[in-house]
Specification:
The protein has a five-stranded antiparallel beta sheet, with no helix packed on it. It has a three-stranded antiparallel beta sheet with strand order 10-9-12, with no helix packed on it. The protein has a two-stranded antiparallel ribbon with strand order 1-2. The protein is of the alpha+beta class. The protein folds into two domains: 7-55; 60-177, Jelly Rolls (Sandwich), CATH 2.60.120.10. 17% of the residues lie in helices and 43% in strands. It is built from one helix and 14 strands; from the N terminus they run ββαββββββββββββ.
């Protein structure tokens, strides 16, 4: 046996310097350690995702229907007449999302926020809204033909009657981005 009897050639692609015979065992140990780290991170990610889904307040008994979504260039409008005053400034461009919501008796939107204001018109029945930041959890009942302006800071819409209800919502959102984020349930000040 020559002086190189304790060494073997590394696999193709490995450095050509001579490597001790135990290189395969070291490589396997390193691979197992890396796989354990990846598996551990994957477990943490899956656990966090499950916790977030459990933590979030998702809609129940509410069926949304998208009517349309359109992008508006930046604008500034003002109406000032004998009947009302209205101002709106938008920059840069925004999306306007129009949806209807059909509420089954007892249905709920779940606690959520929006990136901007939402203009809601109840078209059938009545929907009761609660604001996430209201320490008194005061209900705001909106009946057919009435409107409600959601500031976007966080709220829930509930059909607390035994009859179906519907609304139409116009949501202002960043272009191409989500227009709703979930909040935890129960609400900070409300028991639901």
């Amino acid at each position: 046996m020559g002086p190189d009897s304790n060494f073997e050639a590394p696999p193709v692609g490995m450095p050509t310097t001579k490597t001790p015979v135990g290189w395969r065992e070291l490589e396997r140990e390193e691979l197992v350690m890396r796989m354990n780290k990846i598996f551990g991170l994957l477990c943490v990610f899956v656990f966090a995702a499950c916790a977030m889904m459990t933590w979030a307040s998702t809609p129940v008994g509410v069926t949304p229907t998208l009517i349309g979504r359109g992008t508006y260039d930046a604008f500034k409008v003002k109406a000032n007449n004998d009947a009302f005053e209205f101002k709106a400034v938008v920059k840069p461009e925004v999306d306007m999302v129009v949806r209807t919501h059909a509420y089954a008796p007892g249905g709920s939107t779940g606690w959520h926020t929006h990136p901007g204001p939402v203009f809601i018109t109840v078209t059938e029945g009545e929907v009761t809204f609660y604001e996430a930041d209201d320490p008194t959890c005061t209900p705001r009942v909106v009946r057919e033909g009435q409107g409600y302006v959601d500031t976007g800071r966080g709220h829930i819409g509930r059909n607390e009657t035994g009859n179906p209800a519907k609304d139409v919502a116009v949501i202002i959102a960043p272009v191409g981005r989500p227009f709703r984020d979930e909040l935890p349930a129960p609400g900070l000040y409300c028991p639901f």
